[in-house]
Design a protein that fits this description.
The chain has 5 helices and 8 strands. By secondary structure, it is an alpha+beta fold. It has a single domain, classed as SH3 type barrels (Roll), CATH 2.30.30. Helix 1 packs antiparallel against helix 2.
Length: about 160
């Protein structure tokens, strides 16, 4: 498989989209760049690299599915938060299939209106691998922590 990155193709960097995962669940994402993969059978697949927003509901589901290594910490951080509250995962990004998984554009006005939920500008989600786990396993438990803007700045400076 060959991969060609074309940052100018498709939507501009920073475009917000609603997307669906492989199970059809709704997510919101910020698109960064487009790549084209040429697969072994010479099919060309267009993928978009994006950073995900996680809702409180999705974080609770991750805990229930055993994907969170520190469930007590995350549950305490989510205790008084509504289900439609969304937080940006600053270090969790992936490629999605642009033809199949990108649903529609989302304007910043829609994001701020409250109609889609509450998008948190001052808190961020950090998802970190746990030492000793297999990084090749997509279902491995990881530590999930909500950080304020100042805590994130401190974490990034270390």
């Amino acid at each position: 498989m060959r991969r060609v990155r074309q940052p100018c193709a498709g939507p501009p960097n920073g475009t917000w989209r609603s997307v669906k995962n492989d199970h059809g669940d709704l997510w919101y994402a910020i698109l960064e760049h487009v790549i084209y993969e040429v697969e072994d059978d010479d099919d060309i697949v267009r993928k978009v690299f994006c950073v995900y927003w996680w809702s409180r509901r999705q974080l609770i589901e991750a805990i229930e599915d055993g994907e969170v290594n520190n469930p007590e910490v995350l549950l305490s951080q989510l205790a008084d938060i509504e289900d439609d509250w969304w937080v940006l995962a600053v270090n969790h990004a992936d490629y999605i299939l642009s033809q199949e998984q990108v649903i529609t554009g989302v304007t910043q006005e829609e994001m701020r209106s409250g109609r889609l939920g509450s998008f948190e500008p001052d808190y961020f989600l950090m998802i970190e691998d746990v030492p000793g786990t297999d990084v090749g396993d997509p279902q491995r438990p990881r530590d999930f922590n909500l950080l304020s803007r100042s805590e994130l700045r401190d974490w990034l400076s270390t």
